[in-house]
Specification:
15 helices, 2 domains, globular, binds phosphoric acid mono(formamide)ester, Rossmann fold, binds norvaline, alpha/beta, 4-stranded parallel sheet, about 325 residues, 5-stranded parallel sheet
Length: about 325
Protein backbone atom coordinates (compact mmCIF):
# COMPACT_ATOMS: atom_id res chain seq x y z
CA UNK A 1 0.00 0.00 0.00
CA UNK A 2 1.22 3.48 -0.75
CA UNK A 3 1.92 5.94 2.06
CA UNK A 4 -0.97 8.36 1.74
CA UNK A 5 -1.16 10.10 5.07
CA UNK A 6 0.89 11.05 8.06
CA UNK A 7 -0.19 11.79 11.61
CA UNK A 8 -0.75 15.47 10.81
CA UNK A 9 -4.18 14.41 9.53
CA UNK A 10 -5.22 13.86 13.16
CA UNK A 11 -4.68 17.49 14.02
CA UNK A 12 -6.41 18.95 10.94
CA UNK A 13 -9.34 21.23 11.91
CA UNK A 14 -11.81 18.85 10.19
CA UNK A 15 -10.60 15.98 12.38
CA UNK A 16 -11.99 17.43 15.59
CA UNK A 17 -15.29 18.76 14.20
CA UNK A 18 -17.20 15.49 14.08
CA UNK A 19 -17.47 14.83 17.78
CA UNK A 20 -21.10 14.43 18.86
CA UNK A 21 -22.52 14.52 15.32
CA UNK A 22 -24.83 12.09 13.47
CA UNK A 23 -23.88 10.48 10.15
CA UNK A 24 -27.05 9.40 8.34
CA UNK A 25 -25.97 10.21 4.78
CA UNK A 26 -22.73 11.26 3.09
CA UNK A 27 -23.80 14.88 3.06
CA UNK A 28 -23.72 14.91 6.86
CA UNK A 29 -19.96 15.13 6.26
CA UNK A 30 -18.14 17.95 4.49
CA UNK A 31 -15.57 16.97 1.84
CA UNK A 32 -12.70 17.84 4.19
CA UNK A 33 -14.29 15.84 7.03
CA UNK A 34 -14.56 12.86 4.68
CA UNK A 35 -10.92 13.28 3.64
CA UNK A 36 -9.88 13.51 7.27
CA UNK A 37 -11.78 10.29 8.11
CA UNK A 38 -9.97 8.50 5.29
CA UNK A 39 -6.67 9.70 6.70
CA UNK A 40 -7.51 8.44 10.19
CA UNK A 41 -8.72 5.11 8.75
CA UNK A 42 -5.47 4.68 6.87
CA UNK A 43 -3.44 5.27 10.04
CA UNK A 44 -5.61 2.84 12.04
CA UNK A 45 -5.26 0.22 9.31
CA UNK A 46 -1.49 0.55 9.40
CA UNK A 47 -1.58 0.17 13.22
CA UNK A 48 -3.12 -3.32 12.78
CA UNK A 49 -5.30 -5.39 15.07
CA UNK A 50 -3.55 -4.61 18.32
CA UNK A 51 -6.05 -3.50 20.93
CA UNK A 52 -6.05 0.23 21.74
CA UNK A 53 -7.69 2.05 24.65
CA UNK A 54 -9.09 5.08 22.85
CA UNK A 55 -12.69 4.07 23.56
CA UNK A 56 -12.13 2.36 26.88
CA UNK A 57 -15.35 2.35 28.89
CA UNK A 58 -17.46 3.39 25.86
CA UNK A 59 -20.40 1.37 24.58
CA UNK A 60 -21.89 1.16 21.11
CA UNK A 61 -25.53 0.04 20.75
CA UNK A 62 -26.46 -1.49 17.40
CA UNK A 63 -30.07 -1.87 16.19
CA UNK A 64 -30.58 -4.04 13.13
CA UNK A 65 -33.98 -4.40 11.47
CA UNK A 66 -32.40 -6.28 8.54
CA UNK A 67 -29.71 -8.98 8.19
CA UNK A 68 -26.04 -7.98 8.25
CA UNK A 69 -22.67 -9.69 8.21
CA UNK A 70 -20.09 -7.00 7.43
CA UNK A 71 -21.65 -4.01 9.15
CA UNK A 72 -22.50 -5.82 12.35
CA UNK A 73 -19.25 -7.79 12.74
CA UNK A 74 -16.92 -4.97 11.66
CA UNK A 75 -18.51 -2.49 14.08
CA UNK A 76 -18.40 -5.01 16.91
CA UNK A 77 -14.78 -6.05 16.38
CA UNK A 78 -13.80 -2.45 15.64
CA UNK A 79 -15.20 -1.33 19.00
CA UNK A 80 -13.32 -4.16 20.74
CA UNK A 81 -10.06 -3.17 19.04
CA UNK A 82 -10.53 0.41 20.23
CA UNK A 83 -11.02 -0.77 23.82
CA UNK A 84 -14.81 -0.33 23.89
CA UNK A 85 -17.79 -2.65 23.75
CA UNK A 86 -20.72 -3.20 21.37
CA UNK A 87 -24.15 -4.77 21.94
CA UNK A 88 -26.78 -5.63 19.33
CA UNK A 89 -30.58 -5.68 19.32
CA UNK A 90 -32.46 -7.20 16.41
CA UNK A 91 -35.69 -6.01 14.81
CA UNK A 92 -38.00 -8.19 16.85
CA UNK A 93 -36.55 -6.72 20.06
CA UNK A 94 -37.44 -3.11 19.35
CA UNK A 95 -39.64 -2.81 16.19
CA UNK A 96 -38.87 0.84 15.52
CA UNK A 97 -42.13 2.74 15.26
CA UNK A 98 -44.26 -0.36 15.99
CA UNK A 99 -43.49 -1.50 19.54
CA UNK A 100 -42.49 2.03 20.53
CA UNK A 101 -41.72 5.27 18.77
CA UNK A 102 -38.27 5.91 17.22
CA UNK A 103 -37.96 8.86 19.61
CA UNK A 104 -38.55 6.74 22.71
CA UNK A 105 -36.08 4.06 21.57
CA UNK A 106 -33.47 6.78 20.95
CA UNK A 107 -34.06 8.43 24.34
CA UNK A 108 -33.72 5.09 26.14
CA UNK A 109 -30.55 4.02 24.32
CA UNK A 110 -28.99 7.46 24.80
CA UNK A 111 -29.09 6.72 28.54
CA UNK A 112 -27.05 3.54 28.03
CA UNK A 113 -24.73 3.96 25.06
CA UNK A 114 -22.13 6.46 23.85
CA UNK A 115 -23.05 5.99 20.17
CA UNK A 116 -25.70 4.08 18.23
CA UNK A 117 -25.64 2.28 14.84
CA UNK A 118 -29.06 1.74 13.25
CA UNK A 119 -29.99 -0.38 10.21
CA UNK A 120 -33.59 0.38 9.22
CA UNK A 121 -35.96 -0.16 6.35
CA UNK A 122 -37.24 3.37 5.79
CA UNK A 123 -35.02 6.41 6.25
CA UNK A 124 -37.60 8.65 7.92
CA UNK A 125 -37.81 6.75 11.28
CA UNK A 126 -34.01 6.89 11.38
CA UNK A 127 -34.12 10.67 11.01
CA UNK A 128 -36.64 10.88 13.84
CA UNK A 129 -34.48 8.56 15.92
CA UNK A 130 -31.36 10.65 15.33
CA UNK A 131 -33.17 13.90 16.14
CA UNK A 132 -34.18 12.50 19.55
CA UNK A 133 -30.85 10.86 20.38
CA UNK A 134 -28.41 12.70 22.61
CA UNK A 135 -25.48 10.55 21.44
CA UNK A 136 -24.10 10.20 17.87
CA UNK A 137 -26.19 8.06 15.51
CA UNK A 138 -24.64 6.25 12.54
CA UNK A 139 -26.72 4.92 9.66
CA UNK A 140 -25.80 1.25 9.26
CA UNK A 141 -27.94 1.17 6.06
CA UNK A 142 -31.40 2.49 5.30
CA UNK A 143 -33.47 2.39 2.12
CA UNK A 144 -31.95 5.76 1.18
CA UNK A 145 -28.28 5.56 2.16
CA UNK A 146 -25.33 3.39 3.12
CA UNK A 147 -22.65 5.90 4.12
CA UNK A 148 -20.42 3.44 6.04
CA UNK A 149 -19.93 1.39 2.89
CA UNK A 150 -19.27 4.45 0.73
CA UNK A 151 -16.59 5.78 3.13
CA UNK A 152 -14.84 2.37 3.09
CA UNK A 153 -15.10 2.33 -0.71
CA UNK A 154 -13.36 5.71 -0.99
CA UNK A 155 -10.57 4.32 1.23
CA UNK A 156 -10.25 1.27 -1.05
CA UNK A 157 -10.06 3.33 -4.23
CA UNK A 158 -7.57 5.74 -2.69
CA UNK A 159 -5.33 2.86 -1.62
CA UNK A 160 -5.21 1.61 -5.19
CA UNK A 161 -4.77 4.89 -7.06
CA UNK A 162 -3.15 7.09 -4.40
CA UNK A 163 -5.76 9.76 -5.14
CA UNK A 164 -9.50 10.13 -5.72
CA UNK A 165 -9.79 13.47 -7.45
CA UNK A 166 -9.97 13.19 -11.23
CA UNK A 167 -10.94 9.50 -11.32
CA UNK A 168 -14.10 8.21 -13.05
CA UNK A 169 -16.52 5.71 -11.54
CA UNK A 170 -19.37 3.86 -13.26
CA UNK A 171 -22.23 2.44 -11.22
CA UNK A 172 -24.07 -0.31 -13.12
CA UNK A 173 -27.54 -1.54 -12.14
CA UNK A 174 -30.15 -0.16 -9.73
CA UNK A 175 -29.36 3.55 -9.77
CA UNK A 176 -32.05 4.30 -7.19
CA UNK A 177 -30.84 2.27 -4.27
CA UNK A 178 -29.01 3.18 -1.06
CA UNK A 179 -25.60 2.16 -2.42
CA UNK A 180 -25.93 4.12 -5.65
CA UNK A 181 -26.87 7.27 -3.76
CA UNK A 182 -24.17 7.16 -1.07
CA UNK A 183 -21.46 6.06 -3.47
CA UNK A 184 -22.18 8.83 -5.98
CA UNK A 185 -22.24 11.45 -3.22
CA UNK A 186 -18.98 10.21 -1.67
CA UNK A 187 -17.33 10.05 -5.10
CA UNK A 188 -18.37 13.57 -6.08
CA UNK A 189 -17.29 14.99 -2.70
CA UNK A 190 -13.89 13.40 -3.36
CA UNK A 191 -13.57 14.78 -6.89
CA UNK A 192 -14.62 11.70 -8.88
CA UNK A 193 -16.99 11.90 -11.84
CA UNK A 194 -19.81 9.37 -11.94
CA UNK A 195 -21.73 7.63 -14.71
CA UNK A 196 -24.74 5.39 -14.16
CA UNK A 197 -25.83 2.51 -16.36
CA UNK A 198 -29.48 1.74 -15.63
CA UNK A 199 -32.73 1.06 -17.45
CA UNK A 200 -35.19 3.98 -17.35
CA UNK A 201 -37.07 2.25 -14.49
CA UNK A 202 -33.94 2.25 -12.28
CA UNK A 203 -32.31 5.49 -13.43
CA UNK A 204 -31.36 7.97 -10.69
CA UNK A 205 -33.65 11.01 -10.70
CA UNK A 206 -32.36 14.11 -12.55
CA UNK A 207 -32.57 16.09 -9.31
CA UNK A 208 -30.15 13.62 -7.72
CA UNK A 209 -27.71 13.88 -10.64
CA UNK A 210 -27.83 17.68 -10.29
CA UNK A 211 -27.06 17.35 -6.58
CA UNK A 212 -24.06 15.13 -7.32
CA UNK A 213 -22.73 17.74 -9.75
CA UNK A 214 -23.25 20.42 -7.10
CA UNK A 215 -21.37 18.35 -4.49
CA UNK A 216 -18.44 17.93 -6.89
CA UNK A 217 -18.46 21.51 -8.13
CA UNK A 218 -15.03 22.45 -6.71
CA UNK A 219 -13.58 19.62 -8.84
CA UNK A 220 -15.76 20.15 -11.98
CA UNK A 221 -17.24 16.70 -11.43
CA UNK A 222 -19.77 15.39 -13.96
CA UNK A 223 -22.69 12.99 -13.28
CA UNK A 224 -24.49 11.35 -16.18
CA UNK A 225 -26.93 8.45 -16.59
CA UNK A 226 -26.95 6.17 -19.64
CA UNK A 227 -29.13 3.25 -20.61
CA UNK A 228 -26.16 1.66 -22.41
CA UNK A 229 -23.83 -0.13 -19.98
CA UNK A 230 -21.01 -0.12 -22.53
CA UNK A 231 -21.31 3.65 -22.91
CA UNK A 232 -21.33 4.23 -19.15
CA UNK A 233 -18.24 2.14 -18.37
CA UNK A 234 -16.09 3.26 -21.33
CA UNK A 235 -12.54 3.95 -20.03
CA UNK A 236 -13.66 4.39 -16.39
CA UNK A 237 -11.30 3.66 -13.48
CA UNK A 238 -13.89 1.89 -11.32
CA UNK A 239 -16.89 -0.31 -12.20
CA UNK A 240 -19.29 -0.77 -9.28
CA UNK A 241 -22.43 -2.83 -8.99
CA UNK A 242 -24.84 -4.00 -6.28
CA UNK A 243 -27.64 -6.56 -5.98
CA UNK A 244 -30.62 -6.17 -8.31
CA UNK A 245 -33.04 -6.29 -5.39
CA UNK A 246 -32.20 -4.64 -2.08
CA UNK A 247 -33.25 -6.01 1.30
CA UNK A 248 -36.91 -5.28 1.94
CA UNK A 249 -37.78 -5.01 -1.78
CA UNK A 250 -38.15 -8.75 -2.37
CA UNK A 251 -41.68 -8.28 -3.74
CA UNK A 252 -40.12 -6.62 -6.80
CA UNK A 253 -37.35 -9.13 -7.39
CA UNK A 254 -38.80 -10.71 -10.56
CA UNK A 255 -39.46 -7.33 -12.12
CA UNK A 256 -35.99 -6.07 -11.14
CA UNK A 257 -34.23 -9.15 -12.54
CA UNK A 258 -36.02 -8.78 -15.88
CA UNK A 259 -35.11 -5.08 -16.15
CA UNK A 260 -31.52 -5.38 -14.92
CA UNK A 261 -30.41 -8.59 -16.66
CA UNK A 262 -28.78 -6.62 -19.54
CA UNK A 263 -26.76 -4.76 -16.88
CA UNK A 264 -24.79 -7.72 -15.61
CA UNK A 265 -21.11 -6.86 -15.07
CA UNK A 266 -19.37 -9.54 -17.11
CA UNK A 267 -15.97 -9.90 -18.75
CA UNK A 268 -17.13 -8.13 -21.92
CA UNK A 269 -18.33 -5.11 -19.96
CA UNK A 270 -15.16 -4.95 -17.84
CA UNK A 271 -13.11 -4.99 -21.06
CA UNK A 272 -14.72 -1.67 -22.03
CA UNK A 273 -13.40 0.02 -18.86
CA UNK A 274 -9.80 1.21 -18.52
CA UNK A 275 -7.28 -1.67 -18.46
CA UNK A 276 -6.42 -0.84 -14.83
CA UNK A 277 -10.10 -0.59 -13.77
CA UNK A 278 -11.21 -1.93 -10.40
CA UNK A 279 -14.34 -4.02 -10.00
CA UNK A 280 -16.21 -3.18 -6.78
CA UNK A 281 -19.29 -4.57 -5.02
CA UNK A 282 -20.47 -3.88 -1.47
CA UNK A 283 -21.46 -7.57 -0.97
CA UNK A 284 -23.39 -9.76 -0.51
CA UNK A 285 -23.14 -10.64 -4.23
CA UNK A 286 -25.04 -13.02 -6.47
CA UNK A 287 -22.71 -14.63 -8.99
CA UNK A 288 -24.49 -15.16 -12.30
CA UNK A 289 -26.88 -12.26 -11.65
CA UNK A 290 -25.44 -8.74 -11.27
CA UNK A 291 -21.86 -10.02 -11.75
CA UNK A 292 -20.22 -13.07 -13.26
CA UNK A 293 -17.98 -15.28 -11.13
CA UNK A 294 -15.16 -14.53 -13.58
CA UNK A 295 -15.31 -10.80 -12.76
CA UNK A 296 -15.90 -10.87 -9.00
CA UNK A 297 -13.28 -13.60 -8.51
CA UNK A 298 -10.98 -12.16 -11.19
CA UNK A 299 -7.95 -9.86 -11.25
CA UNK A 300 -9.86 -6.54 -11.31
CA UNK A 301 -11.89 -7.32 -8.20
CA UNK A 302 -11.18 -5.59 -4.87
CA UNK A 303 -14.35 -6.69 -3.10
CA UNK A 304 -12.59 -8.21 -0.09
CA UNK A 305 -10.45 -5.10 0.37
CA UNK A 306 -13.72 -3.18 0.47
CA UNK A 307 -15.09 -5.55 3.10
CA UNK A 308 -11.91 -5.27 5.19
CA UNK A 309 -11.91 -1.50 4.91
CA UNK A 310 -15.37 -1.34 6.44
CA UNK A 311 -13.70 -1.98 9.78
CA UNK A 312 -10.90 0.57 9.39
CA UNK A 313 -13.25 3.27 8.12
CA UNK A 314 -15.78 2.64 10.88
CA UNK A 315 -13.10 2.69 13.57
CA UNK A 316 -12.12 6.13 12.26
CA UNK A 317 -15.75 7.21 12.33
CA UNK A 318 -16.30 5.92 15.89
CA UNK A 319 -13.21 7.76 17.10
CA UNK A 320 -14.18 10.97 15.33
CA UNK A 321 -17.75 10.92 16.72
CA UNK A 322 -16.79 9.98 20.28
CA UNK A 323 -13.44 11.71 20.84
CA UNK A 324 -11.58 14.80 19.69
CA UNK A 325 -8.79 12.61 18.21
CA UNK A 326 -6.20 14.64 20.11
CA UNK A 327 -3.24 12.61 21.25
CA UNK A 328 -4.01 9.71 18.93
CA UNK A 329 -0.85 10.25 16.93
CA UNK A 330 1.29 9.85 20.05
CA UNK A 331 -0.30 6.54 20.93
CA UNK A 332 -0.46 4.74 17.57
N1 LIG B 1 -22.09 -4.43 2.62
C1 LIG B 1 -22.80 -4.60 3.75
O1 LIG B 1 -23.28 -3.66 4.36
O2 LIG B 1 -22.89 -5.88 4.17
P1 LIG B 1 -23.87 -6.42 5.32
O3 LIG B 1 -25.28 -6.23 4.81
O4 LIG B 1 -23.52 -7.86 5.46
O5 LIG B 1 -23.64 -5.63 6.56
N1 LIG C 1 -28.50 -2.33 -1.75
C1 LIG C 1 -28.23 -3.44 -0.86
C2 LIG C 1 -26.97 -3.19 -0.10
C3 LIG C 1 -26.58 -4.31 0.83
C4 LIG C 1 -25.32 -4.00 1.61
C5 LIG C 1 -29.39 -3.63 0.09
O1 LIG C 1 -29.92 -2.64 0.60
O2 LIG C 1 -29.80 -4.77 0.32
Amino acid sequence: MQTMYNYAVLTMPAAGRLRGRNVLTMVDLSPDELASLLGTAHILKAAGREQQRFLQGKSLAMLFEKPSLRTRVSFEIGMTQLGGHAVIAHGQDFLLGKRETPEDVARVLSRYADAIVVRTHEHEPLQRFAAASTVPVINGLSAAAHPCQAIADMLTIKERFGTLSGLRLAYVGDGRNNMAYSLAEAAAMSGMSVTFASPITHRPPDAFLARVVELGKPFNVTARAFTSPLRAVRDVDVVYTDVWTSMGDEAYSERNSAALRPYQVNEELMAAAAPHALFMHCLPAHRGEEVTAGVIDGPHSVVFDQAENRMHAQKALLLALMTDLRGLGDQL
